[in-house]
Amino acid sequence: xxxxxxxxxxxxxxAGLALAGYALLMTALNRRMNVPLLAATGVLExxxxxxxxxxxxxxxxxxxxxSLATLIGYLIATPIVPLAAAFWGLMERSRWGPAVIAVAxxxxxVLMVRLHQIWPVIHV
Amino acid sequence: xxxxxxxxxxxxxxxxxGSRPDSTRTGPGRLxxxxxxxxxxxxxxxxxxxxxxxxxxAPVAYLLSAFAAVVYIVATVTLTVGSPTAxxxxxxxxxxxxxxxxxxxxxxxxxxxTFPDATVWxxxxxxxxxxxLVLPVFGLLWLRRWARRPRTAGTTVTSAPAAGxxxxxxxxxxxxxxxxxxxxDGRT
Lengths: 124, 188
Description:
The complex is a heterodimer. Chain A is built from 4 helices and no strands. Chain A starts with 6 loop residues before the first helix and ends in a 6-residue tail after the last helix. Chain A has helices at residues 7-28, 35-60, 68-90, 96-118. By secondary structure, chain B is an all-alpha fold. Chain B starts with 15 loop residues before the first helix and ends with a helix.
């Protein structure tokens, strides 16, 4: 939170938790997947891609984390999360579609914390 | 993937088959498969990195991580397929998973020296928000619903309240659905 490069992960955590809250509300209200939920998932996807870009730029700059393999794994998996959730949630025509999106929002927030643990130069 | 014929408006679908999940991967199963898939991916990636880069550091922990990964993969696939055979394998893998998280959780607390690095199941899954402990329970409850009445699926909830609180609650909270089932099911 203290530095400029921490702004994006922090935004992702807030956005992920907000998305999870909104999606869980939709589940509680017995609503199925809708356009606002899908759009919010798209916003989260874009934010995650920006974060991946920032981290890749750091790697390209010659910096290296202690566990490069783990970091690369996270960089690959991170953008897949909202896409897979949207795909899987859209196939569901009940309240459980939004529930899948809620998981994606929570996972996005957790991934940012884990990225910081793997490579502390990624500030949260 | 076949889309469920389900409609969220109970009034619009008098047939029980139309108002409830038609497979272990639909309805609540959609969420279950998503979380299982997540754990299958993260556990196998983690185990692969650990075994490839520093196996000698904590061989027991890393082998258990790999075992957990295999169990999660099997559970994800079988819950997605949902055929009677797949459901039987899913019950087995969920049971192994529950036994594993309890055994490894206890082992990791009793003998921390064996676990210098954490597994998915260390401390009863505390590093993963205890989801590994809760997940097999929900998996078994979900599968139990299908075991009771394989083809007409799920109508057990109204006639057998013991079918699991989590699932039963979810069903009951869907307005009108439970009532519609009683009527069309004829309380067999």
